[in-house]
Amino acid sequence: MGTVSDCINNRIKTLDLLISRLQESISKRAEGDLVISVQRGYVRFYQSFPGSKKKYLSKADYETVESLAQKQYEQKLLDAALEERKLLADCLAQLAEIEPKGTNHVLDSMDESIHGCIVP
After folding, report:
1. Cβ neighbours of residue 76 under 8 Å, at least 6 residues apart?
2. How far apart are CA 68 and CA 35, in angstroms?
3. What CA–CA distance (Å, rounded) separates 69 from 87?
4. Strand partners, 49
5. Dihedral, CA atoms, 41, 45, 24, 81, nearest 10 degrees?
6. How many Å apart are CA 104 and CA 120, to the nearest integer?
7. What is the pLDDT of residue 106?
8. Contact, 7 vs 92, CB < 8 A?
9. Adjacent-strand bridge partners of 42
10. Separation CA 106–CA 5 (nearest Å)
């Protein structure tokens, strides 16, 4: 069984792999963002580009809709993975300050006359 730091490091490695895969996948997706609009009860999809330009996506453009929807999901997943990784890195830094001490110092801090009475 490893230490808490080992568990955190393993999770960070897993997140690094996920982050790398997500960044690669996002870069291959369609350009722009997906905008969903409901007009008179009909759902319409638009591809938005920087500079407030929008392009209507018809049924023939369904692959683009799928690509943009997947890109939106992957971006949110990437944001969550990056946030988790940052929190774990911060936690690891804090653990580094206390972990070397561990629990071995507890027995050493007690009076030697009672060491024989204690089972560590």
Report:
1. none
2. 9
3. 28
4. 53
5. -30
6. 9
7. 74
8. no
9. 39
10. 20
